[in-house]
UniProtKB/TrEMBL annotation:
Residues 256-444 form the CobB/CobQ-like glutamine amidotransferase domain. This is Cobyric acid synthase. The active site is at 336 (nucleophile), 437. GO terms for biological process: cobalamin biosynthetic process. It comes from Roseibium hamelinense. Keywords: Cobalamin biosynthesis, Glutamine amidotransferase. Catalyzes amidations at positions B, D, E, and G on adenosylcobyrinic A,C-diamide. NH(2) groups are provided by glutamine, and one molecule of ATP is hydrogenolyzed for each amidation. Belongs to the CobB/CobQ family. CobQ subfamily. Pfam families: CbiA (PF01656), GATase_3 (PF07685). Gene3D superfamilies: 3.40.50.880, P-loop containing nucleotide triphosphate hydrolases. Residues 10-242 form the CobQ/CobB/MinD/ParA nucleotide binding domain. InterPro entries: Class_I_gatase-like, CobQ/CobB/MinD/ParA_Nub-bd_dom, CobQ_GATase1, CobQ_N, CobQ_synth, GATase_3, P-loop_NTPase. The lineage of its organism: Bacteria, Pseudomonadati, Pseudomonadota, Alphaproteobacteria, Hyphomicrobiales. The keyword Phosphoprotein does not apply.
Amino acid sequence: MTHLVRKPALMVQGTGSNVGKSVIVAGLCRLLANRGLSVRPFKPQNMSNNAAVTADSGEIGRAQALQALGCRVPLSVHMNPVLLKPETDTGAQIIVQGKRFGAMRAREYGKQKAQLLPKVLESFSKLESDADIILVEGAGSPAEINLRAGDIANMGFAEAADLPVILCGDIDRGGVIASVVGTHAVLEPAEQDRIKAFFINRFRGDVSLFDDGMREIEQRTGWSGLGVVPWFADASKLPAEDALDLARGQGTGAVKIVVPVISRIANFDDLDPLRMEPDVTLELIGPGTPLPGDADLVLLPGSKSTVGDLAFFRKQGWDIDLAAHHRRGGHILGVCGGYQMLGKTISDPQGIEGAPGQVDGLGFLNVDTVLTPDKSLVEASGIHVATGASVSGYEIHIGRTDGPDCGVPMMRLNDISAHRPDGAVSSDGRVSGTYLHGLFTDDAFRRAFLAGFGAASDLAYQNRIDAVLDDLAGHLEAALDIDLLLKIAYAR
């Protein structure tokens, strides 16, 4: 790879998925930004249905959005040039440099992913031109050697960009010595040499108890130990990217908001601000469990496969539960795909989500949706019509929704191209839908919306996230040998 300017950089890889790489990189981004460096995050390939809209009108994984916040820089499609958004158990939509590239089954993508490496390297080079240092996050683990051929996510990219690597092991799940030493054992000699150091994440208790473990790993691998990172409880307050995070604590407030967890749930970080509200109980309902009868609000979240998730919703009997909730006087809110489900029909004439055709919606809103190939990717702000509160967020969806209930929109929005209504409200005022994601991160809207249910809110959500990032940076500064980490990055 030829660079006009070769900048310091390093790549954080892991012994497996969910070992804490994303949070660690976000914390390191903030740590180095606090030292006055211009930092950029980068992940060659991510897999997530939690996406963020960028300033350059594309989409990237939510983890890179958090990392960019750690860097205090705007989002760019080049921070995550390949995003895989699962649509089925075996297939995904492929996003390249922020735009839809196509849809592929896993086996097909495995054969073609190497062709995307030039785009990945192009994005990395663009970030280099603007940064003092780049922090790169791997995906999964380099120990998944069955995926090594054509790899662009871990060692394949590290080789192509000539990056030094540090390895993250998670002691909380057990067997961390075996996972780190085992990773060393299955790598090729050149890949072993590319890893310069390792660290242990999520240690509970006295970290000195693992001193012998660190020495053992150093002796068996030849890698330097950067340190042991103690458990950071406030990591749970940061925006979630992985569906595994949906099981996190959900509060005990008086206002009960119920969320049915559909099979292709997307952008579920919409829920995070509600999770942090002391007056709110956020209850997530999994498959096979009825929606409880005491909810104040049932919130239908976004979906990567609206038609498929509507069938899934009905299969659980949730359509019956939702009708009973509404008869009891309960409120319903649908966001994006959830909004589409609440209408009378969803038409897919071009077969975007499967076979062409039309399905009946849940019928709570007098609107109809037509799925179209063009995707709306835009940041927007405006007002919540019912309360007059300001609101901001982003849209990331396919499809157009129209009908009589759109005559009373939930929002009036402004974006780069238009002043327009958004969403719909039912004639009884108890069912609403919107295409606006991120609405609950807006303190003014969330405060006004929850006040309608009798909940008080003084949470400054974005300030809270920023404070957690600063605390995380201090946590890592105390735990890791940052001077050695920088020496590795600057030796590139």
